[in-house]
Design a protein that fits this description.
mainly alpha, 174 residues, three-stranded parallel sheet, two-stranded antiparallel ribbon, 2 domains, 52% helix, 9 helices
Length: 174
């Protein structure tokens, strides 16, 4: 339930993997919206277990059923580049001498998100998370409802005014 609560947070979450992330640690990473990594694997089957904290559900939604089965069945370790090539992580970074390269890239990513309209980001996350669970027509309806909630916001008005006036927007989260 902790990982479901993490996945349900209304703000973007970014996981950083600066070393090995195995088993439940990778399941925690999968509960986040964005991921920056070096190495990871789901080792549970090498220990007589199966991923039991969402790995069998989140991994296939992230990389597809075939790759998820391969990773879970084999318990094989993959590096950040392979994880990025299969869509498991957003960014793979070479480790730096401080051992925090993934954290530094995640911080840069967070700084890209931070100046965006908070309510629009929240509604975007909601539309994606709820829409992916249903058929496309229902997903479009969910998107429409989120869009309708965003239209009357002061941030949407500020964003449009800033665009017309050719200046950076000053969002306040309302």
């Amino acid at each position: 339930s902790v990982l479901s609560s993490l996945a349900a947070l209304p703000v973007p979450t970014i996981a950083t993997i600066d070393g090995y992330t195995v088993g439940g640690g990778l399941e925690r990473v999968l509960a986040c919206d964005l991921r920056v990594a070096a190495k990871m694997d789901l080792i549970e089957t090498t220990r007589g277990l199966l991923p039991g904290a969402g790995g069998t559900q989140r991994l296939p939604r992230c990389v597809g059923i075939g790759l998820a089965k391969e990773l879970i069945f084999t318990g094989r370790q993959i590096d950040g580049q392979e994880a990025a090539s299969m869509g498991l992580v957003n960014h793979a970074v070479p480790q730096n001498s401080e051992g925090d390269a993934a954290y530094q890239r995640a911080l840069t990513l967070a700084k890209e998100i931070l100046p965006r309209a908070p309510f629009a980001v929240k509604m975007g996350k909601l539309a994606i998370n709820r829409g992916i669970e249903v058929d496309i027509a229902s997903g479009m309806a969910i998107e429409g409802m989120c869009y309708a909630q965003n239209i009357p916001t002061r941030d949407r008005q500020e964003g449009m005014a800033a665009f017309r006036e050719k200046r950076p927007p000053r969002f306040i989260g309302k």
